[in-house]
Structure to design on (584 residues):
């Protein structure tokens, strides 16, 4: 009986202590807004004066903070662009309404790109352009990369809908290697492909806190890729940005129906969830899905390729497929294969002319044969060079324009002390898009993941990260189409495409001459464009029609065969591991 009494007493004491301890935690909540516009102020900092407790407002300006101190307590409110305020809380049951006064001082925004440690933008030794999450949220743009083109001195090149490349101070191009792109401190460049994939694989739009663009040389801080500048994309801190967010963007493309039979839909869905579990631990997850029918290259301007070994650059020239036998259209693939039919080392015209003369000798009287033979020789000799290209296919036939972009991200954050934070962050993405470099590339099922561990203090940091890349089923559209042409009919050989072309061309030239001699009628020579057209039609006999089952079967087979084995598929499974740190 005595034992039972002691246990009951102990239980009552434990319950009382637990109840007392619980009752000492005070919850204070409220809202922060702009006193002039009455708009909510997100990500405003709230700290307990004389203590360690703190929090941030959500997207609607709401906050909740817990303290074990007895009332009254003083809360300190601050945010970039506003004057700080201190409010004494005497009654926790009252919801606090804080009205921020806009600050009159300029340059108070905090940046890290100038010296890799936080500092006010006015104190930065170099010029920095900064885009905040509020700018991203309020600007009508397809994605946050599109906002960069509105910054002074920035040029943008779009290889496709989701592949944008920024550049500063000239030297712009697709996949610009002169401008670093860092996502949460990680180089966003694909290790093997050698171009940044920030707009394809990276931070989801809802998770972008800000972007900082450092124009000009920054190689000392960010490596040799920063000759023309550095772009920093910083994701949101889950301690600061909490709650569940969901964003839907819908649009309509190809309204003019110039590239499609009907208008197509644009879908962009994204979500983010950030949660501060305790004062020391927080996490976040995010996802984004984009799908659309991308634009198709339709410019078929004739192009003269330059000789890179001689520092000669290509340029456009007059002519079409009908008027120029050596036509090479800008957005036409497969016509890059070209040959000189009167090349002294491989005189296709002369060889074919010899075969034609052998046939004519058996068919014609000696006098008529001699005249026809002389005419053939003079025809061949009238072309010092005779460059002819293979017949190509339009971009819409060889490049898939269905854009798909899937991004997943997550992070775990733990404050080891009040000034040191450890984080484990990952970004993973996959999708289909198009990239333009020296050739046109169809990036299909491209997968890239970046995973980082970081220790961070206001004066130093240490991080280690890896980039894992898999090119998937990506292929070089130019090489693939050229190989496809070789597959259905080889260029060389006695029965090859060029031999058939030369045969039909010379026959179309000599046939009217023979008929004129035989009948005594006036001779009307066949014009070169007409002869070339007849020759091309003859050589293209058996050419698979674009979109046919035969075309798809052969093309997909070549596109799925690695380049090393005679196909157009480029295999790239590269991994990058990097460790770095800095103390200031």
């Amino acid at each position: 009986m005595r034992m039972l009494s002691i246990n009951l007493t102990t239980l009552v004491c434990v319950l009382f202590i637990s109840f007392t301890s619980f009752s000492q935690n005070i919850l204070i909540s409220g809202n922060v807004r702009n006193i002039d516009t009455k708009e909510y102020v997100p990500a405003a900092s709230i700290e307990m004066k004389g203590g360690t407790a703190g929090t941030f407002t959500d997207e609607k300006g709401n906050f909740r903070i817990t303290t074990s101190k007895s009332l009254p307590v003083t809360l300190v409110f601050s945010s970039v662009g506003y004057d700080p305020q201190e409010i004494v809380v005497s009654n926790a049951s009252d919801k606090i309404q804080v009205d921020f006064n806009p600050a009159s001082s300029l340059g108070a925004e905090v940046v890290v790109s100038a010296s890799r440690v936080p500092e006010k933008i006015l104190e930065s030794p170099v010029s920095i352009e900064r885009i905040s999450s509020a700018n991203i949220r309020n600007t009508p743009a397809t994605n946050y990369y599109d906002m960069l083109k509105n910054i002074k001195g920035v040029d943008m090149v779009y290889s496709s809908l989701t592949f944008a490349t920024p550049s500063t101070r000239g030297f712009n191009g697709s996949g610009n290697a002169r401008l670093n792109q860092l996502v949460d401190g990680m180089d966003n460049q694909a290790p093997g492909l050698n171009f940044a994939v920030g707009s394809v694989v990276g931070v989801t739009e809802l998770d972008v806190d800000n972007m900082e663009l450092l124009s000009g040389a920054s190689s000392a801080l960010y490596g040799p890729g920063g000759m023309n500048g550095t772009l920093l994309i910083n994701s949101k801190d889950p301690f600061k940005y909490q709650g569940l967010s969901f964003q839907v963007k819908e649009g309509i493309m190809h309204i003019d129906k110039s590239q499609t039979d009907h208008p197509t839909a644009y879908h962009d869905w994204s979500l983010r969830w950030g949660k501060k579990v305790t004062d020391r631990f927080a996490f976040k997850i995010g996802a984004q899905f984009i799908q659309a029918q991308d634009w198709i290259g339709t410019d078929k301007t004739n192009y003269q390729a330059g000789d890179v070994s001689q520092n000669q650059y290509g340029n456009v020239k007059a002519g079409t497929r009908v008027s120029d036998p050596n036509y090479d259209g800008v957005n036409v693939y497969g016509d890059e294969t070209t040959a000189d039919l009167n090349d002294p080392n491989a005189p296709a015209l002369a060889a074919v002319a010899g075969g034609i003369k052998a046939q004519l000798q058996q068919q014609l009287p000696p006098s008529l044969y001699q005249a026809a033979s002389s005419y053939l020789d003079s025809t061949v000799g009238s072309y010092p060079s005779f460059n002819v290209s293979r017949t190509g296919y339009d971009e819409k036939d060889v490049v898939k324009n269905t854009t798909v972009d899937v991004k997943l991200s997550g992070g775990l954050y733990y404050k080891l002390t009040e000034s040191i934070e450890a984080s484990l962050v990952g970004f993973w993405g996959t999708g289909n898009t198009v990239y333009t470099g020296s050739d046109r590339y169809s990036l299909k099922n491209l997968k890239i993941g970046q995973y980082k561990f970081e220790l961070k203090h206001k004066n130093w940091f240490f991080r280690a990260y890896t980039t894992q890349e898999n090119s998937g089923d990506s292929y070089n559209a130019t090489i693939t189409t050229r190989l496809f042409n070789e597959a259905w009919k080889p260029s060389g050989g006695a029965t090859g495409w060029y031999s058939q072309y030369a045969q039909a061309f010379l026959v179309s030239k000599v046939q009217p001459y023979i008929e004129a001699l035989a009948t005594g009628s006036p001779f009307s020579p066949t014009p070169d464009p007409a002869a070339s057209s007849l020759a091309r039609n003859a050589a293209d006999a058996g050419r698979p029609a674009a979109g046919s089952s035969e075309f798809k079967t052969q093309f997909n087979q070549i596109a799925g065969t690695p380049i090393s084995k005679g196909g157009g598929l480029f295999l790239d499974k590269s991994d990058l591991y990097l460790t770095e740190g800095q103390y200031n």
Summary: The chain has ten helices and 31 strands.
